[in-house]
Design brief:
This protein has 13 helices and 27 strands. It is of the alpha+beta class. Helix 1 packs across helix 2, helix 2 (19-29) crosses helix 11 and helix 7 runs parallel beside helix 9.
Length: 599
């Protein structure tokens, strides 16, 4: 009898048994090797792979006739496919929900930059839940939930971390000399290191090394690639494979609502995106081959998904909209889950599911109890993955919302989704009035082409009321105040602050942005602040304010840094602002390094 048969039989006999105890019992009963009476079954390993800005249509298995993703296409056929899987419209909110099993608005993450992508440190991540039960935990790629203590991955349950800063390479969070996909500067367990090679190759090699290190403990590998996010720096070998491929939008299958010609991504840029996706495909193949070669494949749950829709308008299997949109082009993504001998290859699940479901699902599959006090918004999909209960699975409502700002606005840019229907209010064009609510029958109109709101006003009112109740609930969890970065604490000293996390940024005359950081001074004493500047060909004045203290320095033309020494600070919350002035213009700094010098 297979282990899957044992699980099914025991589930039918023990419906009242808690999920984690049931899985442990099933795995024990399904073992083909004798174990001592006191021995617990080894829990499965987990590999969670997520691509960045790779849309539903950026896979061959989803009908794209030109992209080259043979390993992911094969993996899809080896896995259970979640046909109606959803995420947030942009990356940081998806990552917060994925790692906590909770809607991102509960976690403090509401946007992607300006301090709105920092997750509250008291949120419990999947890595923390698994580490508590003996798992080795490692992240290799894009974290995007806080660059400084107490919100880094090494502060939130990951024992090994090789990550980029901020939301991607080539962004304001890059350290000096960084910013490129080849030989990037990465953060290795909190310290900057120059890597050798293309970023996705580097992350995969590190993930393979971590997973295949001999150990009697199971592992959790989180491999969130920063590709295919811009800047579109594609590896040369993969880019050459698209040199003679016509990637103009008109040559793809024309599905769903047409994309205006002027909005379609340029073929040369599509080639770069596809080359980056093909590189991911190759690296996923390398990882899967390594698991097989080390005898780990059958004991490892592998998941592949993406964090949102494509950032540009290109072929997306007919789905409406793109990244940033609550139409399905922004939130409907691939999700494949493989566990040989446990989940049936080729099984397709049509029940709606979302990022909030993966954490409780993985805990259930691994026999790990949810920590006390953690309230999941998601549900365990384990029965569906085991091929059970699809016909009797209860309907549910999922909610998605995103727009720029320090706090979400009630009724703006949201979607509510049941199994059959979807209520949508998209973000209006700049300066336009909010559009009317639209309703789509996703069973008969999965590409969201026919608004039936006028035909079902009672259903619209009911789903809108459900959304409003949800919004009030998630907003009441903790509110949307800033998460403060620690200065001078035991976890991180010095602390490098970048424009990725400044709040209240404003654009000054001349087009430069200036902002400040909400911080918590952890210990009183003497501090130094070193600001890195873009050199200006004229004299400037550098200004600093921190914790009620103000200081300034006159700078010569061409100055690239300014150091404020021996600042005496009291412990407590504060706001740090640093900028320079010259030629009647105010300029923000490139970053600010704050060091505690002791008492």
């Amino acid at each position: 009898m297979s282990r899957l048969d044992v699980i099914r039989r025991m589930r039918s006999r023990q419906r009242g048994l808690p999920a984690f105890l049931l899985v442990i019992a099933c795995l024990s009963a399904g073992s083909t090797q004798a174990r001592p009476a006191t021995s617990a079954p080894r829990r499965p390993n987990i590999v969670l792979i997520m691509a960045d800005d790779q849309g539903y249509g950026d896979l061959g298995v989803h009908g794209n006739p030109k992209i080259k993703t043979p390993r992911l296409d094969r993996f899809a056929h080896e896995s259970v496919r979640l046909k109606s899987f959803h995420v947030s419209p942009v990356c940081a909110p998806t990552r917060a929900s994925l790692l906590t099993g909770r809607y991102n608005y509960r976690t403090g993450v509401v946007d992607t930059y300006q301090g709105r992508a920092i997750m509250h440190p008291d949120e419990t991540t999947l890595a923390e839940m698994l580490a508590k039960e003996g798992y080795r935990t490692g992240i290799f790629g894009k974290w995007h939930l806080g660059d400084n203590a107490p919100c880094r991955p090494i502060d939130q349950g990951f024992q090994e971390a090789l990550v980029i800063k901020g939301g991607g390479l080539g962004q304001p969070s890059d350290p000096a000399g960084g910013g490129h996909y080849l030989d990037p500067i990465l953060q290795h367990n909190g310290r900057p290191e120059r890597a050798k090679g293309y970023c996705s190759d580097v992350f995969t090699t590190a993930a393979i090394g971590f997973a295949t290190t001999p150990s009697d403990r199971p592992f959790f590998v989180y491999l969130p690639f920063n590709c295919v996010h811009d800047p579109l720096e594609a590896p040369e070998r993969e880019l050459k494979s698209y040199a003679n491929v016509d990637l103009s939008y008109a040559t793809f299958p024309q599905l769903g609502l047409p994309i205006p010609k002027e909005l379609a991504q340029k073929p040369e840029d599509v080639a770069k995106v596809y080359a980056m996706a093909t590189n991911i495909d190759t690296n996923v193949g390398r990882l899967l081959d390594a698991l097989e070669a080390h005898g780990l494949a059958n004991d490892t749950i592998v998941i592949f998904l993406t964090d949102n829709g494509p950032a540009q308008f290109r072929y997306n299997a007919g789905l409406r909209g793109r990244k940033t949109s609550v139409y399905d082009g922004g939130i409907h993504v691939p999700c494949y889950i493989r566990w040989p001998g446990h989940f049936r290859a080729g099984l397709e699940i049509d029940r709606i599911a979302a990022h909030i479901d993966l954490a409780p699902t993985l805990l259930a599959a691994c026999g790990v109890p949810a920590p006390a006090g953690v309230a999941f918004d998601g549900v365990s999909l384990l029965p569906l993955l085991l091929g059970e209960r699809a016909a009797t699975w209860p309907d549910r409502m999922l909610f998605f919302q995103w727009h720029r700002g320090d706090a979400p606005e009630r009724g703006r840019a949201f979607a509510a989704r049941s199994q059959r229907y979807k209520l949508v209010r998209p973000e209006p064009p700049a300066g336009a009035r909010p559009p009317a609510l639209a309703l789509f029958d996703m069973e008969h109109d999965p590409l969201e082409q026919h608004d039936i709101a006028g035909e079902k006003p009672a259903l619209v009112a009911r789903m809108q009321a459900d959304y409003l109740a949800w919004f009030e609930d998630v907003s009441s969890t903790r509110g949307y105040g800033p998460i403060r970065i620690h200065l001078g604490g035991p976890r991180e000293n010095p602390t490098v602050l970048t424009p990725q996390d400044w709040r209240g940024a404003t654009t000054k005359p001349g087009g430069t942005s200036v902002g400040g950081w909400e911080v918590q001074v952890m210990r009183p004493g003497r501090y130094q602040v070193k600001t890195r500047l873009k050199p200006r060909p004229f004299p400037t004045v550098a200004r600093l304010s921190l914790g009620g203290m103000k200081d300034e320095r006159k700078l010569e033309p061409g100055a690239s840094e300014c150091i404020f020494n021996r600042l005496t600070l009291a412990a407590g919350p504060a706001r740090l602002e640093a900028f320079i002035e010259g030629n009647d213009t105010t300029f923000g700094v490139l970053d600010a390094t704050v060091s505690s010098l002791g008492d």
